[in-house]
Amino acid sequence: MSEPRLHFVQCPDANGGHRMAYWQWGEPHARHVLVCVHGLTRQGRDFDTLARAVLERSGDAVCVVCPDVVGRGQSDWLKDPQAYQLGTYAADMLQLLSQLQASTLDWLGTSMGGLIGMAVAGQPELPAFARIRRLVLNDVGPTIEWQSLQRIGQYLGRTGAFADVQQAADALWAVSSSFGPHTPEQWLALTRPQLKPLGDGSTRLTLHYDPALALPFKAMTPESSAQGEAALWQLYDQIRARTLLVRGADSDLLSQATAQAMARRGPQADLVEFAGVGHAPTFVAPEQIEAVLEFLLD
Predict the structure, then answer these.
(1) Which of 241, 24, 244 lies closest to 131 in space, CA to CA?
(2) What CA–CA distance (Å, rounded) separates 190 from 211?
(3) Taking the mean position of all CA atoms in its chain, how far away is CA 265?
(4) pTM assigned to the model
(5) What is the pLDDT of residues 167-197, one digit of tens each?
(6) What angle (nearest 5°) sits at the alpha carbon of residue 42, between those of residues 36 and 43?
(7) Residue 291 CA: distances (Å) to CA of 28, 94, 140
(8) Distance of CA 46 to CAs 127, 266, 271, Å?
(9) pLDDT reported for residue 150
(10) What's 162's DSSP letter?
(11) I need a labelling partner for 215 at 20 to 30 A (CA). Which of 27, 85, 258, 263 fits?
């Protein structure tokens, strides 16, 4: 399959509910499901290259599901911006998992998607369809470096106006070069799903996420961040899934000290690092894809 199918799941909230979109690759009735969840301002099509590789390796045995977290991509925007929080995202994913009803469930989460994975996998007494067998955390852990959050806050919410895809790609690369080396073609492929028409009657484009994501993010303080870190470590220590921690060797979000701590405690994650990459690996490079395939499928 060269392209995924777009589906939706209805999720409850205090304002009448919202729809979350997800992209489904492969045999929809496969009992082995891999859920791939993107980073803060990204969307589910980030995993196109990885999804194709999983299907090529597994055939019809695995279905790959890539949600657009609410407020991003094809999903609804929330009426209350303060609900753009980890608890909302985890609740939405449980709705999705209830709809998918996998017999074998694996999870790969990049940055925010990894935090959501920890929030799900660290909950005790989950129903069978939500129990994660293998968990891949991509360049994220319970401790997030404050200077990295400050860096992200400088561009979060600035969705821009671009004359064409190339101009948007250039602007995104200016704040995303830590993703590591990509060919121009690879970066354009990652950029196109990030865009939508600006909606002002022109042909200009803008980023495909709700600018209001920035509101709860910018309300964070070092003190609230520390409180969240304690809660995340508690969740991490409760994870029973076999866990792989992927780290960009130059990451400013996941420190080496935190990565080493994650290898010692909780699920005692296996750790793989990629040189020349910061925050965060995109699973476009063959060696990054192979690390995931070996962990999940071999």
Answers:
(1) 241
(2) 20
(3) 23
(4) 0.97
(5) 999 999 999 999 999 999 999 999 999 999 9
(6) 50
(7) 25, 27, 17
(8) 28, 29, 22
(9) 87
(10) B
(11) 258
